[in-house]
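Per-residue structure
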Amino acid sequence: MLSCFRSLRTLCLFFFLCAASSHSALGQSPALDSLRRLVRQPQPDTSRVLLFCAISDQYWVQRTDSAEAYAHRALALARRARYVHGEGEALNRLGAALRERNLARALELFQASLRLAETHHDLRLQAQNLRSIGIIYVYLRDRQQGLSYYFQALRIGEKLRDERRMVIELSNIGLAYDLYNQLDSASYYQEQAYALARRLHSSTNYILYGLGQVARKQGRWAQARDYYQRSIVESAALGHQRSSNFAYVGLATLYQQQGRLDSSIYYARLGCQAAQRNGFLRGVLNASTLLTQDFKTRGSADSALKYQTLLLAMKDTLFGQEKVMRLQNINYQARQREQKAAAEQTALKAHYRTYGLVGLLVGLLVLVALLVRHYRVQQRANAALQASLAELKTAQFQLVQREKMAFLGELTAGVAHELQNPLSFVKKFAEVSTDLVDEINGAQRLARDGKLEREILDGLKQNIMNISTHGQRATAIIKGMLEHARTGSAPREATDLNQLIEEQLLLAYQSAQHQHPGFAATLTRQLDPALPPVAVVAPDLGRVLLNLCTNALYAVRQRQQQLPVGQYQPAVTVSSRQLAGSVEICVSDNGTGISAEVRAKIFQPFFTTKPVGEGTGLGLSLSHDIISTGHGGTLAVESEEGRGTTFRITLPVRA
């Protein structure tokens, strides 16, 4: 029985190599009849999976819809029987059947089959999937990727000393080079494939087509015609509709180049019919392209229109999915590395799980008495854990409902980092102050020294001021976090935005003058008098405007300090206007400007360009949150280094 199973598996694998994604196939009826007879006999599920795969191979060269149906049957049975090798074979067959209609899905199936083959060190299945993936990249005109996969498959064939597989890989490489018009390389690999196939008495229908392509492009028309005709004869004998399409279209192209339109139309029609019978959409596209050109040249408008319509339908189907594939392929290599790492991680976890189970069994024998004794304690602990888990799920649900809490981890890390600095300073200066008190007490016990006492008291006073400063900074950080938490909680009320803007601008300007006596800037208002009242949370929006105006005044003062006196006039402009369904508020300055690198991070919590102690980095993050989450609007920044910055607020007007 074991030898019978091995013979059956060898037969199925032979069918796979000669038909699935290769360039040769067996005869249609005898092979199918033989396989059907085997399926009707009592078979183990594993054998039946391989038989379904072999039948799918046979149908793939004739009708892809039937090939797809048998591939589905093989996949379902393999998964039900937990036959991993058979699942990999079935995934590859299903990908081959779907490749013409759904490139993206086919690539996913080939990749899944390849992962199974790599996990179970199945080199033959690895080579088959590498070749199948290479075909997709050749379709996408990705020369480097396509040839890379082809050569990987060839190296596995050489490692296995599987010469029949090497014939397929060599021919595929030759066809790829022909597609890229590298005729010397195409000829080299096709001749290698042809010589090896003749020695093995293997099929040469695809190889003959490849040799015909090289000869036609090199102007050796008589040789090209001979190669194409031999490929047609061999393909017909094998019942191989795909290779028939290739050879017919190649011969039709040759006759078109020679100006023999009747012959070109005849063979192009045969190629189109063969491709349609097989479900080979690219073959239909190539044949209909030739027929459209031929009938246009002859002036047969109706026939030209007929095949042009077919051509356009094929282009929409094929090129549309190729565009999607090119977009999906942008990060394919990164995804592939991630998948490989994930597979390795899974294998490592499996080993750890095995070791853990062994250790657990040993530990259970030792701890069984303790487990019985503490059973009730564990029950209470489990109940407490379940209650905690329920509370955690409730809290998690509440957190998910608030969009800004998605930044919880980042904000928590930022709070810890930002609070660490002022608290470290507080601790440091407190320790120094303690030392100073000890010193003055010691000095007083020894002798009264007024000068020493004054120096120590001055140092103590400075330390206390530093402690106060850094304590205020920690308070500001905590206050900013609290404002983050309660943003948008107040009700909205109709508000005169122009008045709110004016108030916050003057408040920011007065604060700047108070902090920096002698500072002056030109304040310009461009407020729309027809602006209607807008329902907003006035305190929250006021904080946003105050923060933007304060930042603008800070920027112009920084630029003023960088330039000689009299060369620069600080200016801040605020404006408002009504748009369709919204209002826009702008705060502009002619300050230092913001680089593109900084603009990308400007709304992140705790990110600030101000020196340490002058800002918490929460202002713009909070402002963005108030506008976007609290009011459903947008806050955008436009800036040019050395020219100035504009912050643009857009608020929806609700009826």
